[in-house]
Design brief:
Bound molecules: heme C
Strand content: under 5%
Radius of gyration: 21 Å
Order of helices and strands: HEHHHHHHE
Helix content: 55-70%
Length: 162
Amino acid sequence: MRWGRLLWINCLSVAGVLMFAPRLSTSLARLASLPGSNPPVRGDMLASPDVAALLRRACYDCHSNETRWPWYSRVAPLSWLIAHDVERGRQELNFSEWPAYLPVTRKRKWQWIERVLHEQAMPPELYRLVHPDARLTEQDITLLEHWLQGQLGAGQISQHEE
Ligand code: HEC
């Protein structure tokens, strides 16, 4: 009886591994090929030079197709973590895809940016630790907040095609 159950559990776990292994290895392979690769830049969000420079400095590594991949982003398992962040970051907000976003989407992304600034959630803590230059000072945050209020208030739709 006990052996029967054990055998059953074994079968189930083997089946589980067989079911998920291909998916796991393809997602690892995908993540492994990401470091160093940047999809084409189709455009950018138009902002004043100081705001644009700030976003580039603090956000573009994960939220654009212009990621500066450091050498350690090619060393596993760190490479997977970094690639995963970039992949997720680009999915949520990609300044290089900005012209393709609908006006409502842009508005939503601006509101999101407002929220993460307010919560000081971005850039992520670990990234800030490794990239001290990406930390936002109070002045930076004020500048970004003013810019966001302008975008949201006036309902302006800035875009810039390459
Ligand atoms: C190290 C990579 C990295 C950097 C740098 C970074 N982000 Fe993110 N960001 C992410 C990841 C990963 C997510 C999605 C997962 C999450 O929500 O934590 C995300 C999500 C977001 C979202 C979506 C909101 C949400 O709650 O999911 C916004 C908005 C955002 N980031 C704004 C910014 C801004 C603005 C900066 C620069 C000041 C920035 N990020 C810098 C990795 C990064």
